[in-house]
Design a protein that fits this description.
This protein is of the alpha+beta class and about 140 residues long. It contains 1 helix and 9 strands, in the order αβββββββββ. The protein folds into 2 domains: about 1-25; about 30-144, no CATH class.
């Protein structure tokens, strides 16, 4: 007779340990975004769109007048939402040419537009070399 309450208590404790961290880890405040440069055809403007685990993302460094644009595609991410996330994909060519393998590391999470959390640094590696750039956590249209 004493086994049932002890067993029931053990099951309840195990469920509590399993459910509580899952609920905290998936709350809306824990999502982390990266800004992807996007062309808005209707208004003929270019601006940033906040994305989570993007498969395709044109990563624009800061300051915009003196930064590189990295058109990343077919991205697969591991560790998204942690302090550092690693991605693998390809550099999507803008003017023909072959596709180049890409490894990207996003890190340095900071609060930005609308209180969201953003990755604000990117290090990208291809067969041609490695580079690091600052990313914007803001929400703004960049140019007409």
């Amino acid at each position: 007779m004493r086994r049932v309450p002890a067993l029931l208590l053990a099951v309840v404790l195990l469920l509590a340990l399993y459910v509580v961290p899952t609920a905290q880890g998936r709350s809306a405040g824990s999502r982390v975004f990266v800004n992807c440069l996007t062309y808005f055809a209707k208004t003929r403007t270019v601006g940033f769109v906040a994305r989570v685990r993007p498969r395709r993302c044109d990563v624009q460094g800061e300051p915009e007048y003196n930064a590189n644009l990295l058109p990343a595609g077919e991205m697969r991410w591991s560790g998204w939402g942690r302090s550092t996330t690693l991605g693998r994909g390809v550099v999507v060519p803008t003017k023909g040419g072959g596709r180049i393998g890409l490894r990207m590391r996003l890190y340095r999470i900071r609060r930005g537009c609308q209180g969201r959390r953003y990755y604000t640094r990117a290090t990208a590696s291809t067969k041609h070399g490695t580079g690091t750039m600052r990313l914007t956590p803001g929400c703004k249209r960049t140019r007409r």
